[in-house]
Amino acid sequence: MKSDRLLSILLLLQTRSLVPATExxxxxxxxxxxxxxxxxxxxxxxxxxxxxxGRHGGIALLPGFRTDVTGLTADEARALFVLAADGAHxxxxxxxxxxxxxxxxxxxxxxxxxxxxxxxxxxxxVDPVRWMSGPRAAVDIAELHDAVLADRxxxxxxxxxxxxxxRTYTVDPYGLVVKAGVWYLVADLDGAxxxxxxxxxxxxxLGEEGVVRRTGVELAEVWAVLxxxxxxxxxxxxxxxxxxxxxxDLFVRLHAGVLTGAPRPGEPRPGEERGEWLLAxxxxxxxxxxxxxxxxxPNLEVLEPPGARSLLARAAAQVVELYATDG
Length: 327
Fold this sequence. Notes:
Blueprint: H1 2-15, H2 21-28, H3 32-44, E1 49-52, E2 58-61, H4 74-83, H5 88-91, H6 95-108, H7 114-123, H8 142-150, E3 152-158, E4 167-179, E5 182-189, E6 192-197, E7 201-210, H9 219-231, E8 237-244, H10 248-255, E9 264-265, E10 277-284, E11 300-304, H11 306-322
Antiparallel strand pairs: 1-2, 3-4, 3-7, 4-5, 5-6, 8-10, 8-11, 9-10
């Protein structure tokens, strides 16, 4: 709708002193000509907006002009209060600021939208922590927070998984990302994207040099690349397994990321009912990964490859030996 687009233009202009018309067109998915027509409409309605021509030109508001958020729709207002339920702001020390901001938003909302916004804040809760994840050590990201905002290089002492001694790196930070309740520092190391868990950063210090980022590359783009690297690791080993139906939901929930397709019924063995056992295939990086399937006990059998069966047979024999005596 044109009214929504006009409000979007106005809000975007309030966040920056000058915005190129081409950028507004890209953000709002319309033509540059439409943007200029919208600017004319805003100006005709009394908004002090103007266009600057030239190579470094764009659309701008007269300094000091502000508007309120009374243009928010009911759905947009509810979305703000659901977003506020995410606990990411707590780690940034923004709890008080968030509460204050929401009170201001509530006061500026059109009266008909306020009850829905208030009800949303009471009826929806976003808990980013996984079930039974256990208590996490408190992570102080203050230094990392300052570094990504100061646009300076950062020197960190970082402990890699499986090691006790931190290694020292000088990185160029793009920003911080919280995923499933875990904070990550996204940065370039020697010009290549790297991911650092905040809870493994043992020390951090701002450098004197300014940050050196790749031209035109933003945090969201770097994060997308790193996420693909994690999720699309080489998986050259195929494990064929059969799983008992009583454990199928748990099996799928735990291993959905490596399943090559939906489990399907297999031919029953003597004494089994049809559909009691299902066949599935897992794409994993190495045979040793099959050890994680031992937790299913007799409710899951690895059929292929033979090396995986031998590995699990040895592991099971070691467990039997461990419990063969009273200790």
